[in-house]
C-alpha cells in the first residue's frame, strides 16, 4: 500500500484506534497538540507540516458529542489552513441520537 504523502491525526476521542490504523498502514501518527482552554474553546496545533499531503482525521462523535464534533471541525480547519491536498474526515460510526422520550420533553 502506498502511504507516501499520507498523514493521519487523531482527536481526543479515540487515539488508540488511530494508532492501530497507523500501525497497520506502517506510518506514524501525526503530531498534534489538542487542548481545551478554561472557557471551553478548543486549541489545535499541528506538530508537522501537511502541505501537499492527503490528511485523514480520526475522531469519534461519541459522548460528549458537542465537544468531539467541535474538536473535529477545528482539526479540519487547522489542516485546511496548512494547505493539505485532501482532507478526509473519518468520524467513527456512532449515531448521535437520543431516546424518543427526550424528544417528547422538548415539544
Give me the count of strands: 5
What is the makeup of the main sheet?
3 strands, parallel
The CATH architecture can be given as: 3-Layer(aba) Sandwich
Uncertain residue segments: none
Count of alpha/pi helices: 3
Topology as H/E string?
Answer: EHEEEHEH
This entry's quaternary arrangement is single chain
The top level CATH class name:
Alpha Beta
Which structural category fits the helices and strands? alpha/beta
Overall average residue pLDDT:
77
* Total domain modules: 1
Shape: globular
What does this structure look like?
This protein is an alpha/beta fold and about 110 residues long. It has one domain (about 5-105): Rossmann fold. About 35% of the residues lie in helices and about 25% in strands. Strands 1-4-5 form a 3-stranded parallel β-sheet, sandwiched between helices. Strands 2-3 form a two-stranded antiparallel sheet.
Write the layout of secondary structure elements.
Layout: E1 6-10, H1 15-25, E2 32-36, E3 42-46, E4 54-60, H2 65-81, E5 86-92, H3 100-106
Parallel strand pairs: 1-4, 4-5
Antiparallel strand pairs: 2-3
Brief characterization of the structure:
By secondary structure, the protein is α/β, with parallel strands linked by helices. It has three helices and five strands, in the order E-H-E-E-E-H-E-H.
List keywords for this structure.
107 residues; alpha/beta; Rossmann fold; three-stranded parallel sheet; two-stranded antiparallel ribbon; 5 strands; 33% helix; 27% strand; globular
Amino acid at each position: 500500500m502506498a502511504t507516501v504523502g499520507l498523514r493521519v491525526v487523531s482527536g481526543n476521542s479515540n487515539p488508540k484506534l488511530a494508532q492501530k490504523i497507523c500501525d497497520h498502514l506502517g506510518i506514524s501518527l501525526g503530531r498534534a497538540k489538542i487542548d481545551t482552554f478554561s472557557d471551553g474553546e478548543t486549541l489545535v496545533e499541528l506538530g508537522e507540516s501537511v502541505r501537499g499531503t492527503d490528511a485523514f482525521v480520526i475522531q469519534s462523535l461519541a459522548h460528549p458529542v458537542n465537544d468531539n464534533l467541535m474538536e473535529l471541525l477545528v482539526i479540519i480547519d487547522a489542516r485546511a489552513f496548512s494547505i493539505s491536498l485532501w482532507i478526509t474526515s473519518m468520524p467513527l460510526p456512532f449515531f448521535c441520537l437520543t431516546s424518543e422520550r427526550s424528544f417528547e420533553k422538548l415539544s
